[in-house]
Amino acid sequence: MSQPSLLPQIDEPGSDLGARWKVVIYNNDYTDRDQVCEVLMSATGCDIQEAALEVWEAEVYGKASVHFAARQECESAAFVISRIGVKAEVSPEWDA
């Protein structure tokens, strides 16, 4: 009797299975930095030190990658962040 074999799951082109996504925030001149830190901690689960570093990065470079996860989780985090007026985008972790 033959043994069943398991084939590796291969993602279809355009599929989100197994892909990692990122949330990028953009600096603005009107949202308070403490408010941004608080929303980053709430949306991504990071601690105050990481949130402060990400806010600094956005201030200095104009943008910062703040979260890496599956697409749905990133979209949820970006939605929460954008509610305070901070532009947040979701894109593949590594753009092709």
What report would you give on this structure?
The protein has 96 residues and is of the alpha+beta class. The chain has a domain at 32-92. The protein has helices spanning 33-44, 48-61, 71-82, and strands at residues 21-26, 63-69, 88-92. A 3-stranded antiparallel sheet has the order 2-1-3. Helix 1 (33-44) crosses helix 2 and helix 1 (33-44) runs antiparallel to helix 3. The protein is globular, with a radius of gyration of 17 Å.
Give a short summary of the structure.
The protein is an alpha+beta fold and 96 residues long.
Shape, per Cα inertia axes: globular
Question: Structural class given helices, strands, pairing?
Answer: alpha+beta
Distance between the termini: 45 Å
Number of separate strands: 3
Question: Taking Cα atoms only, what radius of gyration do you get, to the nearest Å?
Answer: 17 Å
Our count of helices gives 3
Order of helices and strands: EHHEHE
Q: Beta-strand percentage?
A: 15-25%
Largest sheet: 3 strands, antiparallel
Question: What would the keywords be for this entry?
Answer:
three-stranded antiparallel beta sheet; 96 residues; alpha+beta
Chain-wise SSE layout:
Elements: E1 21-26, H1 33-44, H2 48-61, E2 63-69, H3 71-82, E3 88-92
Antiparallel strand pairs: 1-2, 1-3
